[in-house]
Amino acid sequence: MSVSVCIATYNGAEFIGRQLKSILLQLGEEDEVIISDDNSTDNTWQIIEGIGDSRVRIILNKGRKGPISNFENALKFATRDIIFLSDQDDEWLSNKVGDSVNILKEFDLVLSDCRIVNKDGYVVHESFFHIRNSQPGFWHNVYRNSYNGCCMAFRREVLDYVLPLPHSIHMHDWWIGLLVEVKGKVCFYPKPLINYTRHGGNLSPTSETGYGLSDRILNRITLLINISIRLLS
């Protein structure tokens, strides 16, 4: 099965070169990397183009600004059998693609564990799953979401029912994970497959950092309303 890696970038010059190298080492000649850039003002584009790999395609996000629109833009251009989501600032471990593709022979979506590291690569936590109490289940992940996009891969057929991404939802990965919980077969893989970099400037799709209780409740109500509409359409 061939692979599309979808990356959303915005001012990612500090880490994007390292991340791309860790990804490209695992891909075959028939695979592709689709990068949607949200109008970066640093030299993200130049670093990507400087890698000089024909499997990498970078496109400008001309839609709404922000990670949801930016990832949706990348997903629209993905053409391969298996879709990986990737942040711009992590580092893939050498068995990420191989392990994920094998699992997706039996499942529709795989969510792997990850090691949490700081910007210098120092391991802060060995297991995201452990500190998050990660486990499958629709209502468990409504209450305490573990669907971290950078740890997700899924079969292309999933795009048929997760796209388009509603503009009102909190994050794209939460939406994708919950819809596959309802319509597909999910595997929580307890082996870390990436170094998940926390450097203070990145978005954290699972923590809702900075949101008060009322906002968290509203995020979940909005998500559930949109899921219900999608399932009934």
TrEMBL record:
<feature type="domain" description="Glycosyltransferase 2-like">
    <location>
        <begin position="4"/>
        <end position="160"/>
    </location>
</feature>
<dbReference type="GO" id="GO:0016740">
    <property type="term" value="F:transferase activity"/>
</dbReference>
<dbReference type="Pfam" id="PF00535">
    <property type="entry name" value="Glycos_transf_2"/>
</dbReference>
<dbReference type="InterPro" id="IPR029044">
    <property type="entry name" value="Nucleotide-diphossugar_trans"/>
</dbReference>
<protein>
    <submittedName>
        <fullName>Alpha-L-Rha alpha-1,3-L-rhamnosyltransferase</fullName>
    </submittedName>
</protein>
<dbReference type="InterPro" id="IPR050834">
    <property type="entry name" value="Glycosyltransf_2"/>
</dbReference>
<keyword id="KW-0808">Transferase</keyword>
<dbReference type="InterPro" id="IPR001173">
    <property type="entry name" value="Glyco_trans_2-like"/>
</dbReference>
